[in-house]
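Please describe the entry underneath.
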Amino acid sequence: MPTPCCAFRISDLRPCANTAREGSDVCHAHRAFYNKASWLNRFASLNSPLLLTGLVFGENTMLARIEHVVEYSLKEGKIVLTKKDVAALPSPTFDTWVRNRPPFVTLVDLYTVMVRTGKVDPRWNRNLLQLSLATYAKMYAWEMRDMLPNFETRIGPFLRYPGEKPHELVMVLLVIQRAFLQARHMRAAERRHIPDIMSRQLAEECFKTESVKRTALYSTEEWMRILQKKASAVHNYNVEPSVKAILTDVLSKHRTDAKKEIRLGMDPLKRDLIEATWHPSRFEAWCLDEDEKKENSAMFA
């Protein structure tokens, strides 16, 4: 039975309708579609018309098809990116964002999709990791509070990646957001409450993610140590007392919730253990001393 070509038409990125060549999974016309150099030039070049520039769009749009092709290529192993490949992806330095002069075009959206596939470690390109967090932090503005970007879409892939430390990423995200909010609102006295409102909202959003929920059990001291460490590293930012108070409050609430979940999860195990340990077959071995055991043996011999 003929095998359909698994490539996509370059013109509109819809599935190819041709039959694959013998011994291959692509047709003759698309024989170089999954060549790594060509693929990177097509989807990971800042000047490419097929660069992904958004993550929220209708499923029949060209951007949705670009996202699908990128995801399919990596998940199905058609393209295997190494640490060296990912580190070489073009990315402006984080200082560019700190100076509040971000470039108009970046690979942030593409990188988010790459990480989401589970085939690209977010730490392979630290610049793009920080820029992905900074992009979301900048969008998380008071003026956009009624249409904030989807947290799960933009930040979820980074928090869920195996080996990544979600609580450290949360601290980086909060520090970046706070720095941007301060620059935007602290000049006007009547708007100085805004950073605290948005910081609390973002912290609550972070703790909805399963991987972050588990870290609520870490001590408050550990969280504060990481907060200070990331503040110094990311933005040379001095953590205000209000930020520490917000984090402590949010942690306390979610730590209580996490403990409740653990207790609920252990209840069935407790019942099983009680039934097993107090089973009649264990009575003699566990409840009688040696003299009583000998007496029993003599009585029922």
Q: What stands out?
A: The chain has one domain: 81-299.
